[in-house]
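Quick one:
INPUT:
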């Protein structure tokens, strides 16, 4: 869920054209500012979010495997729906199906811990939500040894499949080679929980995850996992994604600005032990 660079860019021009129908951009902005639902929602009277509830503290099942979906993104989606005066619906989707789900109009937006990568912005619009960057998690003894990204060279590293984190490890191969070291041995897992188990079970020396999720993982595995601080820069942003050129895009962006301005997002961040300073809505 930094979630990945790997995309299914199979949406046809016809699908993207469908995404453009609806109200004008001006009317979308006006609707968002007035607290009324914009035109162009997949289902009238409902804000539908594609979400993969496997990424705490941003989105996850309250009881671990079912029931209510909670987390910063989930609650922000509820707040957005309330702002517009509509119901909210979560379209549960596997991570690698989030972007295809958006483009095929299964949902109005993706609010699910996705980095605003150049690759994604080629096929979708996005409004920034918070600052993010990759982090390394390992056993406390090993975490102390990570000072630079190339300290991962030659090690077994776990990451979520189709994620930008996994792509970051793959990109390290060239840097490792230049330093006369072996490339990291990357194993990709469908779920972030599986990357944690890989480290705990000794199958991986470390895992790479977003700073937001990594802090939560450390809290949940006190004494077993530790974040190696300062290895990677906070160099990107999580965003809420809408279809490319869709009239809904400015309405979503304006609504989140309103939720930031009135303190709603700050309250939600604090609820999930996130530093409100990482919020970046503009």
């Amino acid at each position: 869920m930094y979630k990945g660079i790997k995309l299914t860019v199979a949406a046809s021009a016809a699908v993207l054209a469908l995404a453009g129908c609806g109200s004008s951009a001006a009317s979308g902005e006006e609707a968002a500012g007035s607290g009324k639902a914009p035109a162009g929602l997949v289902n009238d009277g409902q804000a539908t979010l594609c979400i993969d509830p496997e990424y705490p503290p941003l989105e996850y099942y309250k009881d671990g495997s079912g029931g209510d979906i909670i987390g910063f993104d989930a609650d922000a989606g509820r707040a957005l729906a309330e702002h517009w005066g509509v119901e909210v619906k979560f379209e549960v989707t596997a991570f690698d199906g989030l972007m295809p789900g958006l483009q095929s109009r299964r949902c109005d937006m993706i609010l699910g811990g996705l980095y605003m990568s150049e690759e994604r912005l080629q096929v979708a619009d996005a409004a920034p939500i918070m600052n993010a960057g990759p982090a390394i998690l390992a056993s406390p003894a090993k975490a102390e040894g990570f000072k630079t990204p190339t300290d991962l060279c030659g090690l077994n590293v776990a990451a979520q499949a189709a994620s930008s984190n996994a792509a970051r490890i793959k990109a390290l191969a060239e840097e490792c080679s230049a330093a006369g070291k072996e490339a990291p041995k990357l194993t990709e897992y469908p779920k972030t929980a599986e990357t944690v188990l890989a480290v705990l079970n000794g199958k991986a020396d470390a895992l790479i995850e977003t700073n937001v999720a990594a802090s939560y993982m450390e809290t949940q595995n006190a004494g077993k996992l530790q974040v190696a601080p300062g290895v990677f820069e906070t160099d990107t942003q999580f965003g809420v994604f809408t279809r490319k050129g869709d009239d809904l895009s400015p309405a979503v962006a304006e609504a989140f600005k309103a939720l930031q301005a009135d303190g709603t997002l700050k309250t939600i961040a604090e609820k999930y032990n996130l530093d409100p300073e990482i919020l970046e809505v503009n």
